[in-house]
Amino acid sequence: MLSESPIPLEGDVLARRIYAPQAYRLVREIQIVPIVHTEALKLSTWFPIAWRMAAHGPELVVLRALLADSRALPPPARGLLPLLLAAYPFVFDPDTLPGPDCRWMFDNVFADEPTDIGAPIITIERKPALATRLRLDALETFSVEFAVTRDIGLALADAGLLEPWSLSFDVEGRRIEVAGLHIAHQSGFETGRYAPILARHGFAAAQLLGLHRLSLFRAGLLLTMAKATLAADRGPQLIAQVRVP
Amino acid sequence: MSDAAAASALPASRLVPLRGAARARHAMPAHGRWVTALGWQPIAYSEMHLCAHYYPLAIRFSRGLPLLGVILDEAYLTRPLVDASGTWQGGYMPMAVRTFPFQATGNSVDPFDDLVVPADTDFLSAEAGTPLCRDDGAPSSHLQTLHRLARQLLDSRRSLAAALDHLLIARLLVPLRQPPNGTAQPATPQLHTVDRARFAEIEPAAFAAMARHRFASVDIAVACQFSLHRLRSECQPKSARSTLAASAAGGRGLDFLGMEDIAIDDGDLFSLGDLEATHSGLDASGSDAPEYPPV
Q: What Pfam families does the entry give (chain B) (predicted)?
């Protein structure tokens, strides 16, 4: 679901050290991250929440930036991590869907920007360290809420209530494009088309759809951050042009 | 009381048609402090989602009818809207603020006949400010913009009446608490928000009934709760506070994801307005609420 080189969490792997999530390139740069519906309340304050078509159906995701560059995230929100990033480098087995029986794995990657000496996965008493427990708690929370999240996405897709979201911009002579995202059908909100979804999924769907609509208004901020990032790469003169409307 | 007067949070003042006002210029104060003194202002549905990122949404009652708006009174807010020098740093400026003190009555297509203003307003001037009419006596483009936005507010208020009634029928509205030490602006009325616990307890069939014709009532309820991250903790409704505390104590997942730390993340530690003002003209106050989707 979100990993580069997952290996079983067993044997010698347990002797490895783990670092703060931001020490890993994937966490700093990944733009689109799968989430569960209970994360929407917090994440929608800064990031758009949408759906992405995956092999198992529509996947609820958060869009963190329009560029694969940590500078393109709003600075106050860089520490606001979705559960899967808070859990990193612990990941789900990519061959199964998250759930009660899903296997936890370790993404076998290098922490390229560690800020401290990290923490052991297990202590000398052979117990999970606090850093490990917090990360595995995040994975467990995700797996508990995944089924409801997936069911809501499937219900929306079955009802024809997901429509493509075009995110394509020309900025600083460069094409910025985020493809493959879908949003809830906009004109449907002025009709009763969502009533059957709420009849089936109640509060979870009501809150998710409302937060989804609110969250889309953070896309403008992401575009602003992308412009500022590209302008910074071009030099001081262009930075000034971006900052003064 | 007129529709326009009902929507204002200010003390009752005689409203007169703009045509009868002798002063022909719209004179806005240079500093932004007057905005916070308004306390609360109504919003249009088209700007609700954007407003919820910047202000706590709140519902006030006028003649028993619920009206949706935003809190501008800084005594209620987690961040100041103007800095020490009076410069606006609140981000998106709601239509009602941009059109203040003009209010549409819906009685005419002519701005001079349709718009009303308080008879004693300081926002009209004979000498200073933006002209409201051209040399030939026709409405200026500034006045036409004011009129269009004021009509949008009026139309939205009428179209939201049924949705807000849903919240009333479902007994979802709960009063906000007054800011401590009597610091609230005199103009700020008694305000209400949506009770998070009661909203979460609504049966799926009832949710479906609320959304049978339109999603608006559910939309407003969620936006009200979302926007509470902009409301000072002392003003949060009692029931919402106790529910959040119980959730945090009772379950790891809710503790992990609850709203209380949003207030911490998003409060005095940084200014969203500063961030966005620094980087661009995002959500520029001079334009309407953006079309949906916003980019």
A: SapC (PF07277)
